[in-house]
Design brief:
The chain has 283 residues and is of the alpha+beta class. Helices cover 49% and strands 13% of the residues. The protein has ten helices and nine strands. It has a five-stranded mixed β-sheet. Helix 2 runs antiparallel to helix 6 and helix 6 packs across helix 7. The longest helix has 23 residues.
């Protein structure tokens, strides 16, 4: 397995990016003039901001002192046991409990919650794996990187609804890719991927970019693993981190990414990339 390198510099970087992106997201949400406008799927811009607020709110309880009450105690067990294909229903359930839809209120709540998370993690070992969604184990730095990714992806959704610009900086997307996605696959994934249609035959894909260390993700026998290298690689992908994260989270088409140079694909069996990406979905 690939041990994700969580240096002091990268730990500072993800914390700085989380704070700055949280501020940008709060400003974006607060400036939304039509919170009922469609953002992503069936969610409006207001519901998308509310979803992010449910995530930051749950993190304040999960990462802070044990005496803190869970903001949604009735779903705490569902969060711990949820598989990836159950996340959509879980998100809808939490949205019914997070009834606030005022973008200004939600933006400030998200900003405040991020400060609580940053305070709670300041003295923790960023490489220490802790319990996460579906019983998976994710390093503390990965929690912050996941939250950063939520802001980046859903900021993209809200900005699209409002017709405004939202930047997904390459270094921030790289942090999300390595400290969250690669770290997740380098640790115990618990029940999270138990229902996923992961290939039984072996497909190994190497991912390289100017912002990340090379990593090989291999789907084989119902599992996905992350390694620094592999003897036989089926597909090589040279990617821009922002583009890849938008692809993996369903915001950017694979053909468009290829045509715009955000992902360049080659190798001995490049056609297997589409099947591989179908197997690899993330919360």
């Amino acid at each position: 397995m690939v041990p994700t390198s969580i240096t002091a510099e990268r730990w500072r970087s993800v914390r700085t990016s989380l704070r700055e992106t949280g501020g940008r997201f709060a400003e974006l949400a607060s400036s939304e003039r039509n919170p009922q406008g469609s953002a992503i799927g069936t969610w409006s811009a207001g519901e998308t901001a509310a979803h992010v607020a449910t995530v930051t709110s749950m993190y304040t309880a999960l990462l802070s002192s044990p005496e803190n009450s869970h903001p949604f105690p009735e779903i705490a067990q569902r969060v711990r046991s949820a598989a990836l294909d159950e996340i959509a229903a879980l998100n809808d359930f939490t949205l019914r409990h997070m009834t606030e839809r005022d973008p200004r209120v939600l933006g400030q709540r998200i900003r405040d919650d991020i400060e609580v998370v940053l305070d709670a993690t300041a003295d923790l070992d960023p490489a220490e794996p802790v319990g996460w969604l579906g019983g998976a184990r994710l390093p503390v730095a990965g929690w912050c990187a996941h939250l950063l990714n939520e802001l980046l992806i859903h900021g993209h959704d809200i900005a699209g609804s409002a017709g405004t610009r939202w930047e997904v900086p390459q270094p921030d997307a790289a942090l999300a890719f390595e400290l969250f996605l690669v770290a997740l696959l380098s640790n115990d994934t618990g029940k999270l991927l138990s229902h996923e249609p992961i290939r039984r035959d072996r497909v190994a894909v190497e991912f390289r970019s100017r912002y990340t260390s090379p990593v090989v993700l291999t789907a084989h026998d119902g599992r996905i693993t992350a390694t620094a290298s592999a003897r036989e690689i089926d597909v090589h992908v040279f990617f821009q981190p922002a583009g890849l994260m938008l692809i993996l989270f369903g915001r950017l088409g694979k053909l468009r990414a290829a045509l715009t140079g955000r992902a360049v694909v080659w190798g001995r069996r490049p056609w297997l990339l589409l099947a591989f990406l179908h197997s690899v979905r993330f919360p």
